[in-house]
Amino acid sequence: MKTTRQKKISYLQPDWTAERPITAGFTTRHGGVSRAPFNSLNLGTNTGDNPANVEANRAALARAFDLPEHLLLTVNQVHGSRVLAINEPNFDLSHFQKVASDAIVTNQSGILVGILVADCYPVILYDPEAHVAGIVHAGWQGAAAGLIGQTVQTMQELFGCRAGRLQAAIGPGIGAHKYEVDRPVRDAFRSGSNQWSRIACETRLGHWQLDLGLSCLLQLEKAGVARDAVDVVTECTCCHQEKFFSYRRDQGRTGRQIGFVLLQ
Length: 264
Known about the structure:
Layout: E1 2-6, E2 9-13, E3 22-27, H1 51-64, E4 72-73, E5 83-86, E6 103-106, E7 112-117, E8 121-127, E9 132-138, H2 140-144, H3 147-159, E10 167-170, E11 180-181, H4 183-191, H5 196-199, E12 200-204, E13 207-210, H6 212-223, E14 230-232, E15 257-263
Parallel strand pairs: 4-7, 5-6, 10-14
Antiparallel strand pairs: 1-2, 2-3, 3-15, 6-9, 7-15, 8-9, 8-10, 11-13, 12-13
Helix pairs in contact: 3-6
């Protein structure tokens, strides 16, 4: 994973994107116009930031890749398990902004598809033979529900992708040492993905440190994605205030970075 600058935008770029017809990565908080505490590249609406600043930031991101702003697509993330598939040309993407979904898959080129995060993990998927990409919002609810595996399955069923040839990247998220959870989270994992014993460490009665990054890796492994095909950002969003927004660190008053894919 390397840091790349595209015009004024700084983002982390998976190594496997080199010399492939895809642009993908994870933005940092730098390169925008928002003021504190949203400084500066806040890409999330409904954060309390000035809407005009968010619009300018989103336009700057799109322009960095020579696209008009309306070709930046994000959805209404609800910490659910729905996967949105875009499999035909759409000249008006605005109606997708209200679609409740936490993962997007597409075979359409020329649209910048993104997932907004500020501690949750963004996960990128790409099949170089089918030329199909996916992006996943992996918070604890999505991880417990096995959303990454569901997204891989959707790519296989709709587009003929194969898990064994997928490339993946796990973006920046909150580290286990900063992420303490309680019994409802434990119960959700036990009844869902059943990873709990491998991703959680009890710190005191009824409280655990949860490793969401490891959960993402285990889901990719279970889905059939090769470990050496996964690029991982190891920096913790909560620890690196100079680089990332963090919902938990900033007690909810913060911006959002984005994990994105753009098929050429």
